[in-house]
Amino acid sequence: MIKILLFAELQEQAGVDEIKVEKAGLTVSELKNWLLEEYKLTALAQTMIAINESYASETDLLKDGDTIAFIPPVSGG
């Protein structure tokens, strides 16, 4: 089981802040494509990615028990 954490606009688009899926063995890129198709998360392209609280890349492989967070850019003022 993979836990996906969503923040800000991604949370609003999906209607949830967390998704649990059986997607071990996929790359981050493949998971992003699945999320785009399943939840129409158009803001994924601009996100930073963390797996188990460490920054990750699109080519990283997901393992059972991982927590992946998609963190959209933050602006302040």
UniProtKB/TrEMBL annotation:
Q: Fetch the InterPro entries from UniProt.
A: Beta-grasp_dom_sf (IPR012675), MOCS2A (IPR044672), Mopterin_synth/thiamin_S_b (IPR016155), ThiS/MoaD-like (IPR003749)
Arranged from A to Z, the UniProt key words for this protein are: Nucleotide-binding
- Coiled-coil region: none
Q: Give the protein family.
A: Belongs to the MoaD family.
Indicate what this protein is called per its UniProt record.
Answer: Molybdopterin synthase sulfur carrier subunit
Species name for this entry? Halalkalibacter alkalisediminis
